Model the fold of this input.
Amino acid sequence: MIITNTIVEKHGLKPDEYLKINEILNREPNLLELGIFSAMWNEHCSYKSSRIHLKNLPTKGKQVIQGPGENAGVIDIGDDDAIIFKIESHNHPSYIEPYQGAATGVGGILRDVFTMGARPIALLNSIHFGSPDYPKTKTLLNGVVSGIGGYGNCIGIPTVAGETKFNSTYNENILVNAMAVGHAKKDKIFYSKAKGINKSVVYVGSKTGRDGIHGASMASAEFDENSEDKKPTVQVGDPFTEKLLMEACLELMKDKSIISIQDMGAAGLTSSSVEMASKGDLGIELNLDRVPCREEGMTPYEMMLSESQERMLIVLEDNKEKEAKKIFEKWDLDFVIIGKTTNTNNLILKFNSKIVGKIPIEALASKAPLYDRKWTKRKLPAKKINIKDLKKVKLEYALMKILSSPNESNKSWVTEQFDQMVMTDTAQRSGADAAIIRIHKKEKAIAVTVDSSANYCKAHPLTGGKQIVCESWRNLISVGAKPIAITNCLNFGNPENPNVMGEFVECLQGIKEACEFLDYPVVSGNVSFYNGTNKKNIDPTPVIGGVGLILESKNKINHLLKKKENIILQVGKTFGHLYQSLFFKDIYSITEGPPPEINLSNEKNNGETVLKLINYKLIASAHDISSGGLILALSEMCLSSGFGLKIERPSKLSNLMEYYFGEDQGRYLLEVEPENLQKAKKILNENNIFNETVATVQDNNFEILGELKININELYKTNNKWYNNY
Amino acid sequence: MNSSIIVFPGSNCDRDIAVALEKSKFKNTMVWHKDMNLPKSDLIVIPGGFSYGDYLRAGAIAAKSNILSEVIKAADKGCLVLGICNGFQILTETGLLKGVLLRNKSLKFLGKDIYVKAINTSNKFCNKYKQDQVLKFNIAHNEGNYFTNSDHLKKLEDKNLIPFKYCDEQGSIKEENNPNGSLNSIAGIFNDKKNILGMMPHPERTVDKMISGDDGVKLFTSLLN
Done:
């Protein structure tokens, strides 16, 4: 078959990339080889636009065992325990086929975690849909939520936290990011680097079918009006098989038979075999006649590019085949030796006793294209609005409007479709600042959260990047956890557009600065470019998954008010920043202006001191103040607990709306028993942290003297109606 | 007391129930579905999960497995059998319990805390609960909507074969507190001899105050009586 320009283009390769392939091979590739290059050189697998920027991120730390570059990141949580976690996107497949797209997103990220030897203990998700009145949104929401639930519930891993957001920027390109967290013994962590020559390469798991061929290339292109035609590139998930595969792998891992193990995710058999060989500086030879196939007559091209789910590649120690095979047979899974490691540094593919493909490994890995794309810097937008010029609204109207909005409404319609309790270690479920998972049969627990702030990132990417890291950090502090490390999922538009590339570079710079300052390193992540349709790019949406440690589970805390007469202390100062706030957006449709400023040293000081207060047991409940400002945070404490609050008016003469709805950063609300108030204030003052009493816990009413008085039931009804009426 | 937990491919609450049983000092054995022999047990538990992926119909394939014929034999001899969630579905598929579990009325998976009322406490499984005690349990299922014919339903009510009904926090049994559409708000049923209990809520998820309350503990300690 002659490779024409059209074939090259269909494989998502640029003409100069094709020339480079010819140069490397010293000949024209055949179709199989072209397919393999296309699978390895696409944006999704090669990170060709992002690599030079990602290397700036802080990835090391006292507690980091493994940073980016493996299937997932690994952190040390003391004793012999390690936590393994990662977040990944499945945006494009989920838009084309929401149930399967979302389900296989969960399946893929779970494999990344158990491949490394961890038993998954928690799932999280960050899902972003278009405007609720956009015709496709309802179907997508239904499909994605039931797909996430369908996979996690069946395999038996609790889905414990997440965020569900709506914004017209995602009308034609939704975001589905899934995060998995696992627990492993420190001395039982498995890596993808192959070692030794003539070792058996074993295929385990499901059979290979024709689904998902070129999935990774699809995920590396913008959508257009023909996107529906891409349905066959979406994989179909089978959580039941994944459960078997997980148990079989974990059983095999008890022994010392695995040299290297890699899941077949994006670009399937191709990327898994290349990755193992490339990391081990080896060659690999596969006999494709042996690949277990679901359908008859599958070609080498289809086998190498299929993204059928629930498959793994393992390099085994000598003489371990028999025992290993027994385990997989017990779980009714395929176990076939399909090849061996070699010292040729080539990927060699045999079919019908002939060599059908031969590519130097380094051509697919280290020699993959690398671009330093043009990018433009974003200026901080000016502040042009005077609040006094805006039409006056009542505080109560604004609060109720925000509380009943799709983005702020109670999400139990979503979370009740997830099993949050299986494994019976979920000490805090979704709805709090972070979820808490106890380490099985131990005192300690981890806290986990996912966060994003696309509007801040759009307004000023550098500040937005810092803000999400801080938000993640605050959420962990608010449940009593010490933040340890993050994983990030960087969802952006077309990197060939300098504005989009600028958003990426500057968000990343913001993430880097905040992570460095807070000693909150990045241990894993994923970049998803080309989120957009017909040249319209989504708003930059980096999503941060944070993990923190609680040494003694009994020190955990949440944001539920506990007792009448308790005092609510606000930590951190209110300046009244309304640009990019929910208040401006939901009440006035104003989306201009800068995001709130981030002061990293205040963040650190405030957070560390709050954590100290929690550990001293001076705090009854805690909550971070984020979007919606002080009043929304206060209302959330009431909604979750059923208690009311008597709220103070601002002590200084300032605009009420700025005071209650301003989204200044670095702030927390702490519920303190009256007898602990002086002690708590003393510690805050000693650390030079601004603090003031803002409310007192009472029964029944959410109340600001002279401004509003709302019964908690009314507040609850307002907050709970949107999903049920949608 | 000796207990056995039957593990199918796709079971996912087997570890949870083992932890709960061990907390109540049961001597427990995990029994793989391919095993031909059942160890000597006073209690057999069929755990929740998605046995065989719930393909064909929830519980249908597990009901035909080797080990289930052993379970049926033991149950006939009076051994105590507890089926939770998927275990309840499997018990109805084997015919050890009558009736079926249909899709939830919302046609959605439902994972949440609910309340049940202890209706019958004079049996091996519930004797530590007070009559009409309201308990907080967790449910997580797609098919928990119990249905049976009217003769059988009458018999269940008349012979007091319904240990748990869904209710609200105050114990009021009304349709609006019925999460999945079950007939008469049924959350669990006995066979005639009351040695077999099938229930949709997961008592093993509430054996630890730190996690989600401990209303499930007494179900396990009742069995020791």
Remarks:
- Chain B is about 25% helix and 25% strand.
- The two ends of chain B are 10 Å apart (CA to CA).
